[in-house]
Amino acid sequence: MFGFFKKKLRYQCACCGKTYSGSPSFAYLKPSYYFDVPENDRDERITIDTDLCHIKGQAEDSSDDIFAIRATLDIPILGMKDPFCWGVWVTQSRENFYRYVETFAEDQSDVVTFGWLAVTMPIYNKCPPDQPHEHLGCDVSWAGEGQRPKIFVQEVDHPLFVDQRDGITRDRAVEIAKSFMRTVHLR
Questions:
Q1: By C-alpha distance, which of 101, 37, 35 is closest to 70?
Q2: Which Pfam families match (predicted)?
Q3: 6 to each of 12, 23, 77, 87, 98, how far by Cα in Å?
Q4: Which of 56, 67, 72, 91 is the residue whose CA sits 20 to 30 A from 46?
Q5: φ and ψ at 67, to 5 degrees?
Q6: Quick one: CA torsion of 153, 120, 72, 35, rounded to 10 degrees?
Q7: What is the pLDDT of residue 122?
Q8: Cα gap 180→153, rounded to integer Å
Q9: In sequence order, what DSSP letters do the residues of the chain get, joined into one string?
Q10: Alpha-carbon distance 42 to 140, whole Å?
């Protein structure tokens, strides 16, 4: 047909055999900090829903509390219409967290804050398996009313930053999707 239409990606899951159409998307249900809290303390220390997470720290003055929000991290797929989309968690300061909550139903597209990526992405983890996940600084670009923010990894010598900046090939997107579907159960 016409050359200006971008292709849609199709790939088959190595585990279930199901064929998927469109760009891969994976979402983390909880930030990695959630799993740092002992299971028997989680009900008391963690307040979480699909978009917000507050983890009470150990300090009495709550100076070590963790606040995280759900966001999306897109990686362009070269020659494809849609990006590889990751639903991730990113930390926010207490002030930015509550500002985000209070203004979520408003247009926030002019707001950019700093946060730390709060998920472990095995495909992009450069640390040994017995080490905690890397902390990557991110610019959190808030969105229009009722939409999740987008995050952009700050410039650093890291494959996630490079892939987000330069994009990945179709074959690399399929490889990541298959690897992720085969090796990781999102928690």
A1: 101
A2: DUF2199
A3: 20, 12, 11, 23, 40
A4: 72
A5: -120, 130
A6: -130
A7: 75
A8: 20
A9: --TTSPBPPEEE-TTT--EEESS-EEE-SS-GGGGGS-GGGHHHHEEE-SSEEEE--SSTT-TT-EEEEEEEEEE-BTTBSS-EEEEEEEEE-HHHHHHHHHHTTS--TT-EEEEEB-S--GGG--S-TTSPPP--EEEEE--STT---EEEEPS-SSHHHHHHHH-B-HHHHHHHHHHHHHH----
A10: 27
* Token representation of residue 63: 């100076």
The tokens describing 85, both together, are: 């989309």
Residue whose pair of structure tokens reads 């990113």 in the numeric block? 90
